[in-house]
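SAMPLE LOG
Freezer: B-3
Tube label: C17
Construct: single chain, 89 aa
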Amino acid sequence: MNRTHKIKLEKEYCDSVYYGDKTFEVRYNDRGYQKGDYIRFIPVEGVYNIIHPISDKEYEVTYVHSGFGLNEMFVVLGIKELRHIGEEQ
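STRUCTURE (predicted):
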C-alpha cells in the first residue's frame, strides 16, 4: 500500500526540488520508504515553517537505494513530481 509522507525540507533545497534540478532525497529511514510512496514537502527555515510553492506539489518515490556506501539507517530516494490529469507539463 502506497503511503504519503509529509516531511520537512530546508529552504535552501526547496527551489532545486521544485524546479526539478534535485531529483533525490537522502533521508533517515525511520518511515520505511518504498518505491511508489508519495512525499509532500513542508518547507522550513530552521524550526519555522515557511511559504513556498513546493508545499502544493506531490512527489512520487521512484527508487529507494540503501546499503552500499550508506549508513544502514539512511536511504537515497529517487523522486519525481507527480502530475495529475489536466495539469500542464
